[in-house]
Structure formats: C-alpha cells, structure tokens
Amino acid sequence: MTATHEGTGSVAPLLPQDTSDVEALLKSILKSLDDSKAEDIVSLDLAGKTSVADYMVVASGRSHRHVGAVTDHLLRDLKDAGYGNARVEGLPHCDWVLVDIGDAIIHIFRPEVRGFYNVEKMWSTETTTPTQYIG
Predict the structure, then answer these.
(1) Is the pLDDT of residue 16 over 70?
(2) How far apart are alpha carbons 120 and 60 in whole angstroms?
(3) H-type helices in the chain, by residue range?
(4) Taking the complete model, does pTM exceed 0.85, yes or no?
C-alpha cells in the first residue's frame, strides 16, 4: 500500500502502526474502569472497520454519581499515564459520557441509557440477521 504526499507527487510506502502503544492504552483504560468498579465492560476492536478509533470501550456505572466518578478516575489515570487530556462530552449530566483519547473511544453509561442506545450492538461484527438493503 502506498500514499501520495500532497504537493510532492512522490509516492511513499505506508508504515505499519505500532500496535503495542494502542494495546498499552487499552490496558490502561480497562484497568482504570475495573479499579473504579465500572460494570459490564466491553472492548470492541475497530481497527480496519473505521478510521475513528482502533478500540471502543463501553462500560456502565450504577448511578449518575458513579458514572461521573468512573469518568473522573479514568481521565486522571490517562493523564498520569502520559496520554494527555482527552475530549469529554456529557460529563455535566452523567447519563452517557463519551471520552475520546484518539486511538480509543470510551462510553460510560447508566444502565438504562446503555440499554436504550445499545452502542456495542451497533459496532459489533457479530450479527444474527442478514443485512437488509433498501432501495
């Protein structure tokens, strides 16, 4: 596979991504969520499926307060591990908090909200019904 560099007209080979860094990030995320007593933690490998992120992690907190505490703990652990500041959405309400750290996206839900949106089913590759095309 090759990539064309804009403005140069030259072609350079694409370098393989160092997956050990991404796996270390995933381990940090999973450890932080487990230490915070997050529930029903699911990790989805998105590599090759989308350019948004390599991994998606979905977890639940028992209440608004627990979702907020899990998120605060995760953000602190990521920063302490040297991953910098993550982008965060939904922290004021703590129904559904999205943490974007670049190579991984973390969703932390209250159980009722997680069941309603069912994000892991949307991104899962395991389907029991065939895809239906309309048109």
Answers:
(1) no
(2) 12
(3) 19-35, 64-80, 111-117, 119-123
(4) no
